Amino acid sequence: PISCCAIYHSTAGLLLTMGEPMKKDIFGQDEEIFESSPPLDWGWLCTPRIPCAAAPTKNPPFYKVNALMPWGVAIVMGFQHALAMLGGIVSVPIIVGGPFDAQLSNAEIQYLISAGLISSGLLSMIQIYRFKLGNTGYYMGTGLVSVLGTSFTFVPIARTSIDFMMKEDSSNPCKSDVDCKMTWATFGRVEAGVTNERQCNLVSGMCKFSGQEAYGAFLGTCCFCALLEIALSFMPRAQLRRIFPPVVTGVCVLLIGVALTGTGIKYWGGGAFCADHASKRKLTTVGKSYPGDLTGDSKATPVKLSTYVSTSPCAPGCPKELSGVCSYTGPKYDKASDTTKGDVTICERFSDLPGTFMANAEEKRNPDISWQKCTDNGQVVLPFGAAEYVGLGFSVFMVLLISEVFGSPFVRNSQVAIALLAGFAISALARYPMPGNAPDLKYVTNDKINKAPGITFLWVKTFPLSVYVPAIIPTMIGFIITTVESVGDITASAEASRVDQDGLLDSRVQGGLLTDGLASLLSGLLTVLPNTTFSQNNGVISLTRCANKRAGYCCCGFLVIFGVIAKIAAIINSIPYCILGGMTTFLFVNIVVSGIKILGPELSVRRSRFIVASALAIGIGVALVPHWGNNDLIRPGKG
């Protein structure tokens, strides 16, 4: 009997014996020459690393861009590229569409995950294929394994824009939140919007913008601003670097990474909202102070309420139903000032915090269901920074470290996806013990997976497109940053692919930037944030020694398949926030490293060091203390 393995090796051997280079491939162009491909060293690809061991004396084969790689090998290599892209693509919709940003539903977030994967696969095909625009001398695409993905650069811009817009009044009048349910039509199909908590401004009688409207407005803004990158693509590479020098773009990239790393740490600790309100969930009430000693005697004996009248609900001590929510300290006599200092009551505050989980009377009395604690970690609801959350997130980090030290080239190329899946598996097996006979709580539930459809595609859900004018300038700055980043990424891809000396580098950069701009415009119409060239694939090319376009096409196919199978998006959306935080923190800090790498050669010049220091002083300072500019630096107008 003839085995599939024998057929495979016979096909590979036939390709190796072809003496004449071929001029045409199903995915190629007439001007490109396709060469025969050497066999893959499977042992090298799958053998784990041994630290401190001698490096192999013979390097495995290098698969050139246009080599006729066997499709079986291309599928394996393409799968690695797809896994390298997975973590970055799925993180953006989970963060931007989360319950404390755009407040989209689970179904909408799962759709955006699928749409991001599908659009990445489809748009990357244009980038990899590369074709000439008639007789203009311009190109579309790089002709390299340059895979597009949802850009992290626009995440802070999107979050800020959506936050501001959801606080603004629209032109729709209302008397209650129900009046703010907006509908819109797409392709003749009417989409029913949702109502966010407190969307109706009872003071002005007007509806605030919903999360769907705000997200759609940012998509429309990105479509408009993407025209800038399209225009910049026709500018020579050297001129681009003069207009936007590394000292500027490096600082921007570094600061974006710093802001995003902070977001990743918040998710690692349990969630962004509970992190932001960890210091705000306590309300401290201090009673009135009186002259003299009203505590009973000058030795400050226990308080006598007949002498000191307290307004605290806890005096002279917190009742049982408030013991877990409030703490009470009685009045104290200060001998130096001969004054009785008022009593102090510290309680969790509920009524004045925004959100969709408004506490009722029972929640105010029961600290175990306090909504200020972190949600979206399955059934387990704990305060921010709980040891359980940090430990689960650290499991992702440990898998990343182990795979980097001991992993084979295949594992190291796929380490982010492997670490995410490993952390997900650990959290699915983990349980949070409950006292008594109560069942243990799960960190992962099947609710989202069971409710998800089997398959999905683009435009299953849509958002009302518009342009949010205040976001235009920040978004254009974002496109300038991604333009300069893409120049570096494409140049690095050409070097890793060993085609940087073929005389086509400038046209590859021009074609790549044009595709980035067009893809960002199209991605807005495909309901996802801008798609730009990712740098992860450069590392995959270097490690696997495979720059072959067939591997790129297989990567695109896997991304589309991952997106079409809606259950995959539901599984990703079921990952606890603490696990997601462990992975995104690693991804986001790599952006910081990229910024440092861009700045590296520039820091040898004193003038550049001064510019960088001045920019980082404010940029990092505001990232660490974001409310610094919200106090006395901004005063209301007088008169």
Task: Explain what the structure shows.
The chain is built from 21 helices and 19 strands. The strands form 8 sheets. Strands 6-10-9 form a 3-stranded antiparallel sheet, with no helix packed on it. A 3-stranded antiparallel sheet has the order 11-16-13, with no helix packed on it. A 3-stranded antiparallel sheet has the order 12-15-14, with no helix packed on it. It has about 650 residues and is mostly helical. It is globular and about 95 Å long. Helices cover about 50% and strands about 10% of the residues.
Structural class: mainly alpha
Shape: globular
Question: What is the share of helical residues?
Answer: 40-55%
Q: How many helical elements? A: 21
Give the N-terminus to C-terminus distance in angstroms: 94 Å
Give the tags.
single chain; 21 helices; three-stranded antiparallel β-sheet; 19 strands; 9% strand
Summarize the structure.
With 639 residues, the protein is mostly helical. It has helices at 4-16, 42-46, 71-96, 106-129, 155-166, 211-232, 237-243, 246-268, 272-276, 361-365, 387-406, 409-413, 415-429, 447-451, 472-496, 505-525, 536-544, 549-564, 566-573, 577-599, 606-624, and strands at 35-36, 67-68, 131-132, 139-140, 148-150, 169-173, 183-186, 189-192, 200-201, 206-208, 282-286, 290-291, 326-329, 332-334, 339-341, 344-348, 431-432, 441-442, 531-533.
